[in-house]
DNA sequence: CCCTTTCGCAACCTTTGGTTGCGTAAGGCT
DNA sequence: AGCCTTACGCAACCAAAGGTTGCGAAAGGG
C-alpha cells in the first residue's frame, strides 16, 4: 500500500529537467553537459548540477575524455527507477479500481431500491 | 519519445510528502489537514500547503464542513497522473530494452570473431 | 603559440518545503 | 449564555533546491 520507494531515486526523476536529460541520454547516447544544455531550456551550469544529482543516486556515470566529460545512463539503475514508478502507479491504480467497484456496488443497490 | 507529460501533475506527485498524502486519502477516505498531519512527519501547516498544491492541479477537492475542511481525491485526475507515470516508465523501458538488445547483438558478433 | 572550447567553482537570486506564532471561527460542556 | 477546546488560515521566517551570471583554468586546434 504505502509506496515505500527509494525517495532518492524518486526525487531524482521527479524533476522535469532531469527527466528530459535522461530522455536525451537514452536517445542520443552519452553526452556532455554542454551538448545536453544545447537541447534544453537551461544553462550548462544548471545541467551540470542536475548531472551531479543524477550521478549521486547512480542513475548516470561519467568519464573524463580530454577536456570533455561524458555522461551515460546506468541502465540497471534506471530500470530500478522505472520499477518504482510502475509500483506507485500500480498501487494507485489498484486503489482506484477498488473505489470504483465499491461505488458501482452502491449505485446498483440504490437502483434496486428505487426499482422496488 | 520525449515524455511530453503535464509537468504540473508530475511535480505535484513528485513530492514524497504529497505522494504519502494521496496514499492516506486513498486508504482512509476523505480527511482534513489535521488528520493527515497526525500520520505524517510534518506539521499541519506544511500539509495544508501541500493540499493547496494538490488542489490547484485538481488532484483533490475540498469541502467545508463546520470548522473542518474535508479533502478527497479526484479519481479521474489521479488516473490521468497514473497514466503519465506509466507512459514515462514504458518509454524508458522500451529504450532500455532496445539498448540491451543492441548490446547483446554486438556481444554475439564479438564472440563470433573470437571463435574464428 | 595563441585562440577557442569546455569545464568547474563561487556568488547570487527565487521558489519551495518546512517551521513557529497568532488570530479567529465553530463546537462541546456546564 | 459563557467558557474552553479544536481546527483552521494567515504571516513571518528559515533552509534547501533550481537557476543564473561571472570568473579562472586546462585541453585542443589553427
TrEMBL record, chains A, B:
<keyword id="KW-0238">DNA-binding</keyword>
<dbReference type="GO" id="GO:0003677">
    <property type="term" value="F:DNA binding"/>
</dbReference>
<dbReference type="Pfam" id="PF12840">
    <property type="entry name" value="HTH_20"/>
</dbReference>
<dbReference type="InterPro" id="IPR011991">
    <property type="entry name" value="ArsR-like_HTH"/>
</dbReference>
<dbReference type="GO" id="GO:0003700">
    <property type="term" value="F:DNA-binding transcription factor activity"/>
</dbReference>
<feature type="domain" description="HTH arsR-type">
    <location>
        <begin position="1"/>
        <end position="93"/>
    </location>
</feature>
<keyword id="KW-0804">Transcription</keyword>
<keyword id="KW-0805">Transcription regulation</keyword>
<dbReference type="InterPro" id="IPR036390">
    <property type="entry name" value="WH_DNA-bd_sf"/>
</dbReference>
<protein>
    <submittedName>
        <fullName>Transcriptional regulator, ArsR family</fullName>
    </submittedName>
</protein>
<dbReference type="InterPro" id="IPR001845">
    <property type="entry name" value="HTH_ArsR_DNA-bd_dom"/>
</dbReference>
<dbReference type="InterPro" id="IPR036388">
    <property type="entry name" value="WH-like_DNA-bd_sf"/>
</dbReference>
<dbReference type="InterPro" id="IPR051081">
    <property type="entry name" value="HTH_MetalResp_TranReg"/>
</dbReference>
